């Protein structure tokens, strides 16, 4: 058996899931309600976290934009171009992080919504899955698009700033530009392809117990 087959999650059927959930279908009504309420509260918790994170990153973008345009209007500041570049880098990292966290948060919200869909028929009936319209606008998807829009704007601004002020092969290397640029690229790559990716593998749980000396 290869390493991939050992570590990757195994797909199971709805019936297997319910069976593993303390044989959910055969539980008494009180136990079913307790499990269902846990799933429902977890869904609510993920929604609350989603909007708390969104507000957190909105604040980041507001501060970055205020700093960028405030500095842009300053006429006499020797390090103006460098600090505009630094704000650009910060804007890219925070807006891309915002976009990816939006996707990750929505994934966990959908996870619990699917669990609720599976359980509610045997607890409260088809309440949550019954809707009064066949389509509408998605608040979370619009939020994702806005965060992606910010990311693209910051990226374009960075590219234009490099082309206009900092990319000249005849000039000596400006380490105050090159080092933050390399750091930004590294962090972006880590978010997209490295430590920022959530991977569900076989998990080994280690427990430790501390000793207590009694007199």
Short description:
The protein contains 6 helices and no strands. With about 220 residues, it is an all-alpha fold.
Compile the SSE list and pairings:
Elements: H1 3-7, H2 14-20, H3 29-72, H4 80-120, H5 139-166, H6 175-193
Helix pairs in contact: 3-4, 4-5, 4-6
Description:
With 215 residues, the chain is mainly α. The chain has one domain. The protein has helices spanning 3-7, 14-20, 29-72, 80-120, 139-166, 175-193. Helix 3 runs antiparallel to helix 4 (80-120) and helix 4 runs antiparallel to helix 5 (139-166). The protein is elongated and about 75 Å long. It starts with a helix and ends in a 22-residue tail after the last helix.
Largest sheet: none
Euclidean distance between termini CA atoms? 53 Å
Mean residue pLDDT: 87
The number of distinct structural domains comes to 1
Shape: elongated
Low-confidence stretches: 1-6
* Relative helix content: 55-70%
Strand content: under 5%
Structural class: mainly alpha
Which labels suit this protein?
single chain; mainly alpha; disordered N terminus
């Amino acid at each position: 058996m290869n390493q991939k087959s050992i570590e990757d999650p195994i797909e199971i059927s709805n019936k297997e899931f319910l069976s593993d959930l303390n044989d959910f279908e055969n539980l008494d009504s009180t136990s079913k309600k307790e499990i269902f309420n846990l799933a429902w509260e977890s869904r609510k918790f993920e929604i609350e976290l989603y909007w708390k994170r969104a507000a957190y990153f909105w604040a980041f973008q507001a501060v970055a934009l205020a700093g960028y345009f405030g500095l842009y209007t300053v006429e006499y500041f020797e390090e103006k171009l460098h600090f505009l570049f630094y704000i650009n880098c910060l804007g890219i990292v925070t807006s891309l992080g915002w976009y990816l966290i939006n996707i990750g948060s929505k994934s966990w919200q959908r996870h619990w919504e699917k669990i609720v869909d599976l359980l509610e028929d045997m607890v409260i009936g088809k309440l949550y899955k019954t809707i009064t319209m066949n389509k509408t606008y998605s608040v979370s998807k619009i939020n994702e698009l806005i965060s992606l829009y910010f990311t693209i704007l910051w990226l374009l601004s960075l590219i234009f700033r490099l082309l206009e002020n900092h990319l000249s092969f005849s000039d000596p290397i400006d380490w105050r530009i090159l080092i933050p640029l390399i750091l930004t690229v590294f962090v972006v790559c880590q978010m997209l392809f490295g430590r920022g990716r959530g991977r569900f593998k076989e998990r080994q749980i280690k427990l430790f117990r501390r000793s207590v000396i009694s007199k």
